[in-house]
Design goal:
With 262 residues, the protein is of the alpha/beta class. Helix content is 51%, strand content 10%. It has two domains: 4-61, no CATH class; 72-233, Rossmann fold (3-Layer(aba) Sandwich), CATH 3.40.50.300.
Length: 262
């Protein structure tokens, strides 16, 4: 007997789609295995919880706005033998999120900084943490646009509350006023209140170059970013390097017959 026709309206009204979707299969399983009523109910509740968790995960993943689906399993550690692999896996557990500590990732172009940052963000999403991924340029542009529409304070407060903010390509372009002040304000608001991941092509001593017009602002911003930060240095060849063409072989010279050479 299929109980779905009788229960369908009530389950939909209660928004228990997970139970509705698996009810027929679970009912058949319960009959065949002669499950107790409580065991049958436990299966249905487990299905509903799994559906809701998957829905939350999908929503968080969409809101994170990752460029691509980059996970830690896809990261090529063998290409970067000097990378502190133990630290990377420790960060993947999310301990830095509870510590509200920054994670700073530096290295040349194409070494996997963005991949690693997004992979850590993906781990955080799986742990139920809200994440926002953005480039430094897009971040400052969005704050500038918010100022133009009179919503700067609301935008700043929203970004300050995000449990994990990932800022990609810091220092790729110099920060001019008021972008340098906007970034400083955001870093100051998040300081010891939420975790931030920052990637950059610049070495750590060069980060003040991102604030060419205000050394004092640079010092105040970077001092907060570096305090209790976990640092990862990616040093290796770019994975974007063009593929090398295989060796070309010239055609073998044709032999000249004696009759032709005579």
């Amino acid at each position: 007997m299929n109980p779905a026709p009788e229960l369908a309206p009530q389950l939909k009204q209660l928004r228990l789609s997970g139970i509705f979707d698996s009810l027929e299969a679970r009912n058949r399983q319960a009959i065949e295995a002669k499950l107790a009523y409580t065991d049958f109910l436990a299966l249905l509740i487990t299905d509903e919880v799994a559906r809701r968790e998957q829905k939350k995960f999908s929503t968080r993943l969409r809101r994170a706005q990752f460029r691509t689906t980059k996970t830690l399993d896809q990261f090529d550690f063998e290409r970067l033998p000097q990378l502190n692999r133990a630290l990377v896996h420790d960060l993947a557990t999310g301990r830095y999120l509870q510590e509200k500590a920054p994670v700073l990732i530096v290295g040349p172009c194409g070494t996997g900084k963005s991949h690693l940052a997004q992979a850590l963000g993906h781990c955080a999403v799986r742990q139920g943490v809200d994440v926002v991924f953005t480039t430094c340029a897009s971040l400052t542009q969005s704050l500038s646009a918010a100022r133009a529409t009179g919503s700067y304070e609301r935008k700043l407060a929203m970004l300050a509350r995000v449990p994990l903010l990932i800022i990609d390509d810091f220092g790729l372009k110099p920060l001019r006023a008021p972008a340098d002040e906007d970034l400083h304000d955001l870093i100051a608001e998040r300081y010891e209140q939420a975790a931030t991941i920052v990637t950059s092509n610049l070495d750590f001593p060069e980060w003040d170059q991102a604030f060419p017009g205000n050394r004092l602002l640079a010092s105040a911003s970077l001092d907060r970013l570096r305090h209790n930060a976990y640092c990862l240095v990616l040093d290796g060849q770019s994975y974007r390097a063009p593929k090398q063409l295989g060796p070309t072989t010239s055609p073998a010279p044709q032999k000249t017959s004696k009759s032709a050479s005579a």
